[in-house]
Design a protein that fits this description.
binds zinc ion, 21% strand, single chain, 5-stranded antiparallel sheet, elongated, alpha+beta, 5-stranded mixed sheet
Length: 512
C-alpha cells in the first residue's frame, strides 16, 4: 500500500471481559439443527458445531446399553446440546432455508487514556448458517476522544472494498450523535473514576457520551451543575447557546460576564437571557442599570426579530416604564401592540422624528395609524409616477402634436390624449384598471403604435371617466370605464363612432 492513511490517537487494548460482555448481548439460544431417520435423529449444535445421533424413542431392553437416547426434537421448541450443554432451539433441517442470517447489536466501551478518555463504539455480529457453527465477529466502528477543555473528537471506522480505514468525523451534538448508546460495557464507570478530569461528574440520568463530552469540555460544568444553574447546564450539555469561552482564565472570563454578576446569575439559576444580557454588558465595557436590564428582558422574552427591532427603536426615544404604560392605555381601547408597532414602522419609513412624543405616543392611535397607511400609499404612488415619467419622456414630448391631432369635443363628451406618463398612472389608479401599471401602453404610446386617450364629461373635464386606446390609424381598439367595465356603453359607443368618423374626415381634408 503506497498511501499512508490517517490514524486516530492510540488506545489501550480492549479489556478482556469485553468479548464476554458482547456475547451476552446476543440471544442466549443457538440453533439445534436436526433430521429424523425413523426411530433416531441427528442434531448439529450451532453453539459448538458438533453433531450427534441418538434414538428418540424408548428403546427395547436389549438395545438400552448399546445405543444413546436423546430428547425428541420438535421444530421451534427449546432444547439443550448433548455435547456442550448450550441451550438452543430445535430447527428441522427441511424447514430452515439454506441462506445465512445475522443478528447484531451495538455497545460502547469507555476507556481511560491517562489524562484523556475515549468512548469506543462496537458492533457484535452473529452469523448463522444451516448445519454450521455460529460465528461471532466484533468490530469497532467509531471513537469519541475527550480531552480537558476541548471539543470532543470523533473518529469513524470504515471498510470499503476490503480496505479498512479511519477518518475524522464532524463532532456532532452528542444529544443526537449517531453512535448507538443502548448498551455500555459495565466497566466503563470504573474507567471514568480512574480519569481525573471526569471523576467528579454526576451524569444522573443523562447518557454518558452526551454528559461527559460536555463535562470535559467546560471547566465549570461541575460548579454550574452543583449550583443548580439548570438553564446554563442544559446549554452546556447541548454545547450550544451559552456563548462560553472554555479557554478563559477565571469563571467570569469563561462565562464572558463581569465578576460581580456571578452572584446574580447563580440566583437566577443560570437563566440564559440574564447570561446574554450580562455578556452584552461586559462586551460593551459598561454596567447596565436595573432599567437597562429590564428593557433587555422585555425585548428578549416577548418578541420576534422584527418586533424586537421596532421596540428597540422605540426604547431609543423613551423608557420601558412609559412604553408599558402606553401599551396598557391602548389595550384598554382594544388597540393591540401590532397596530402600534405597525404605526411606528410607518412613521419611521416616512422619516418622522420619533423623539417627539406626539409621534411616539399618539393620543388617537387608530386614526394616526390609518392616516399613515394612506400617506405612505400616496408617497408610493408619487414615486411610481416620477419613475414612469423618467422612463417614458416621449409621451410628454409628443403631447402638443397629438393634442392637435386627436382632441375633440362634441355634445356630452370630450376626448384628449394623455399629456404625459404621470397622467396615465393617475388615470389607471383612479379608474382601477391596468393601463397605468404595465409598460405595454406606455411603450405603444411612445412608439406611436397606439395612443392612450381620456374620455371625459364635457362638464367635468378633470374627472376621469373612460380610458381609450386608439390605433395610429384612428380606430378605437378598446375602451373602459372604472374597474374594466362599460356602464355607459349606450351613450359612449355611438359617440366614439362619430369620433372615429370625425378623425377620418379630418384626415381626408388634410390629404385633399
Ligand atoms: Zn453444542
Amino acid at each position: 500500500m503506497s498511501k499512508t492513511l490517517e490514524q486516530p490517537p492510540k488506545v489501550k487494548p480492549v479489556p478482556k471481559d469485553v468479548e464476554k460482555y458482547a456475547h451476552s448481548l446476543l440471544p442466549s439460544h443457538h440453533n439445534l439443527y436436526y433430521k429424523r431417520f425413523g426411530k433416531s435423529a441427528t442434531v448439529t449444535c450451532a453453539a459448538c458445531g458438533q453433531t450427534y445421533t441418538g434414538l428418540i424413542e424408548r428403546p427395547m431392553e436389549i438395545e438400552k446399553s448399546l445405543v444413546k437416547v436423546i430428547d425428541l426434537p420438535m421444530h421451534n421448541t427449546e432444547g439443550k446440546c448433548e455435547k456442550c450443554g448450550a441451550p438452543g432451539i430445535y430447527k428441522a433441517e427441511g424447514r430452515v432455508k439454506s441462506f445465512a442470517y445475522e443478528k447484531w447489536t451495538d455497545f460502547v466501551v469507555g476507556q481511560n487514556l491517562g489524562d484523556d478518555f475515549v468512548f469506543r463504539a462496537f458492533s457484535i455480529k452473529r452469523k448463522s448458517r444451516k448445519n454450521l457453527k455460529d460465528e461471532e465477529e466484533m468490530t469497532e466502528y467509531a471513537r469519541i476522544y475527550l480531552s480537558k477543555g476541548k471539543k470532543a473528537m470523533e473518529w469513524w471506522h470504515r471498510s470499503y472494498y476490503g480496505q479498512e480505514y479511519w477518518y475524522e468525523g464532524n463532532p456532532s451534538w452528542y444529544g443526537e450523535c449517531k453512535i448507538s448508546r443502548n448498551h455500555y460495557w459495565p466497566g466503563t464507570l470504573k474507567e471514568i473514576e480512574k480519569t481525573p478530569m471526569l471523576k467528579y461528574g454526576d451524569p444522573e440520568r443523562y447518557d454518558l457520551i452526551y454528559y461527559y463530552s460536555a463535562f470535559s469540555r467546560y471547566p465549570d460544568f461541575e460548579l454550574v451543575q452543583k449550583a443548580g444553574m439548570t438553564d446554563l447546564m442544559y446549554a452546556l450539555l447541548c454545547q450550544y447557546g451559552a456563548n462560553i469561552n472554555p479557554r478563559g482564565k477565571t469563571i467570569a472570563d469563561r462565562l464572558r460576564v463581569n465578576k460581580d454578576r456571578l452572584k446574580e446569575l447563580r440566583e437566577r439559576k443560570g437563566d440564559l437571557t440574564y447570561l446574554h444580557i450580562f455578556q452584552e454588558e461586559r462586551k460593551n465595557k459598561t454596567r447596565f442599570t436595573r432599567e437597562q436590564i429590564e428593557e433587555r428582558l422585555f425585548l428578549a422574552k416577548k418578541h420576534g426579530p422584527t418586533d424586537r427591532k421596532t421596540y428597540e427603536l422605540i426604547l431609543m426615544h423613551t423608557n420601558l416604564h412609559k412604553l408599558l404604560a402606553y401599551i396598557e392605555s391602548q389595550r384598554k381601547k382594544n388597540i393591540y401592540e401590532h397596530t402600534y408597532l405597525d404605526y411606528i414602522r410607518m412613521r419611521q419609513r416616512a422619516g418622522y422624528d420619533l423623539s417627539n412624543e406626539v409621534y411616539l405616543f399618539p393620543k388617537d392611535l387608530r386614526r394616526r395609524h390609518d392616516e399613515m397607511v394612506r400617506m405612505l400609499e400616496k408617497k408610493r404612488n408619487d414615486e411610481y409616477k416620477e419613475q414612469m415619467e423618467k422612463k417614458w419622456p416621449k409621451i410628454r414630448e409628443k403631447s402638443n402634436k397629438l393634442d392637435r391631432k386627436y382632441s375633440y369635443k362634441s355634445g356630452k363628451y370630450l376626448i384628449r390624449p394623455a399629456m404625459n406618463a404621470m397622467e396615465i398612472v393617475e388615470e389607471g389608479r383612479v379608474l382601477h384598471h391596468c393601463v397605468g401599471s404595465s409598460d405595454t401602453y406606455f411603450q405603444k404610446h411612445s412608439k406611436g403604435t397606439s395612443y392612450i386617450l381620456f374620455l371625459r364629461n364635457a362638464k367635468e373635464p378633470e374627472k376621469p371617466l373612460a380610458t381609450v386606446e386608439l390605433s395610429s390609424k384612428g380606430t378605437v381598439l378598446q375602451w373602459y370605464e372604472a374597474y374594466d367595465k362599460q356602464p355607459d356603453r349606450k351613450s359612449i359607443q355611438p359617440w366614439l363612432n362619430r369620433y372615429m368618423k370625425h378623425l377620418q374626415e379630418k384626415k381626408k381634408k388634410k390629404v385633399g
